[in-house]
Fold:
Amino acid sequence: MLDNSPAVLRQDVGAVALLTLNRPAARNSLSLAMIAALQAALDEVGGDEAIRCVVIAAEGRAFSAGHDLKEIAAHRTDADGGAAFFAETMAACSAVMQSVVTLPQPVVAAVEGIATAAGCQLAASCDLVVAAEGAGFCTPGVDIGLFCTTPGVALARAVPRKAAMEMLLLGEMIPADEALRMGLVNRVVPAGEALPAAMALAQRVAARSAVALRMGKRGFNMQAAQPLAEAYATAGQVMVENLLAADAAEGIGAFLGKRKPEWRHE
Structure:
């Protein structure tokens, strides 16, 4: 019997959108169809002004095992040896990872089980990561002759250079507590608690001004890629833009008046 359930599920809980990878039998591997489904879900959520934070979770015992190697192997019989399909897959995967980073809303990953190769890349691309005890992160491509070069892009921006290179060169599984020490993970919670903990964290984020969250995430990512002087110039421009927003006026007024702010999200 064919499984016609969506590859990615969406559930809105207040101002938080929960996106769930839904290929548990395939360990939520990122087939081209799964990547397309995740891209569509992100595009939809990104344009939804009612959503102020996003959580990415997964059904089953794995967050994501990375690219679908069975799908990749099947295309080696293509006339071009799979070159066109491989290029399409890498381009689509790179695009969806960038969409996570550029999404207007902050994104929290809830990781139970393994997050390997492109699955680790997805977690590293998120703004925050909550991992369960027993979760593991690795980029094991080197073990099968396929260096995790594209996952390395996200890793290099999430952890120190030498930590990223150790993961890429050795391909060893990094337990959640070690990932926390490295800075790949923000919080480690008991097994089975990653999703509720991530949702609780997301709800706390979503209680803030939507305009401040959007500007803040955009400004942080812009300045992080710039030299020091340019970073301060960019951050200063974003601060001015933020100060002119109605919510900044409300928030400062509420602070000075010793009252709770009433966000207009504009």
Notes: The domain at 8-206 is CATH 3.90.226.10 (2-enoyl-CoA Hydratase; Chain A, domain 1). The longest strand covers residues 8-13. The mean pLDDT is 96.
